[in-house]
Amino acid sequence: MKNFFSIVLLVATCITYGQKKTNGTIYVEHPAINAVEAMTQAFVSGDADKVASFLTDDFKSYNGSSSDKDDKGKDKESFLKEVNFWKDNIDYLSIKRSQGAYPDALEYKEANNKDVVWVQTWEDLKGVHSKTGVKIDMPLHRLFIVDKNNKIKTIIRYSNNSVFDEIGNSFNDRENGTIYNHHENINSVRKMIYAFENKDFDKAYSFYDDKAIFMDINSPVGKSITLAEQKANDQKLFDKFDLTSIDMVGYPDYLHYEMGDARVVQSWWNFRLTRKSDKKKIVLPIFFIDNFDDKGKITSEIAYYSEKMME
């Protein structure tokens, strides 16, 4: 039996090793990597002549994310025009290695790759479009084919190009919904606030959806609490302060956005408080953003105010 298991183990080991086959060598340091990174820095600096010195005459650049099966790529002349475009239109341009990443140079054994080296990079591309102010901050993965003279024959680029859609859209004015200064959702916010002022808490909380969430500018980013937790916080406020009055500042706006069909009331208030411990009077400015559903219930609320004013 022992011999049987030994044979099985030997066969399994042979099968495992039989499934592996080397196809070349990967380098972390290589002249081809140096050429790629030098070309990249020339691109960033807008030096088209220097970029050209790193490219072969039959150079081609491809968008690896394209679904166009007939994509012929861009030739050397077109790529050099890109250098000038980025120089003229993108402020603060940088292309740097992503954190923790480094380029690889791959020398394959295959006959059709024996005279070239593949270089792959993982980088962050950053900048600001000078005309529209759109920020570019995206990962960039590129594959380079470099010949034996360390000239770049091919670049295949993989990136998310949605930011360029935003740049294109930003050249034209576009409406995105309607602003109201009178609306039923504004009425709901006013009734909620004044019910709170008059300590009619059941009525005040009735304007919220049961699953409403609450956020506070003084809390960690992304932290929200439930309606039950907000009720507890409100009780703590009344334990420490007397609420004399809540005064509306200006007038609320109701924004019904076309994009996302969002329904938002923005309102500005002065909460007039008296601290019970020392009778100190405080006027606390608060800005609320209340999001509504299509049934007229508040689904989320963000409060902006200075917590230090209450210390």
Question: How would you describe the overall organization of this protein?
Answer:
It is built from 8 helices and 16 strands. The longest helix is centred in the first third of the chain and has 17 residues. The strands form 2 sheets. Strands 1, 2, 3, 4, 5, 6, 7 and 8 form an 8-stranded mixed β-sheet that branches. Strands 9, 10, 11, 12, 13, 14, 15 and 16 form an 8-stranded mixed β-sheet that branches. It is elongated, with a radius of gyration of 31 Å. The protein has 311 residues and is of the alpha+beta class. It folds into 2 domains: 150 residues, Roll (Nuclear Transport Factor 2, Chain: A), CATH 3.10.450; 134 residues, Nuclear Transport Factor 2, Chain: A (Roll), CATH 3.10.450.50.
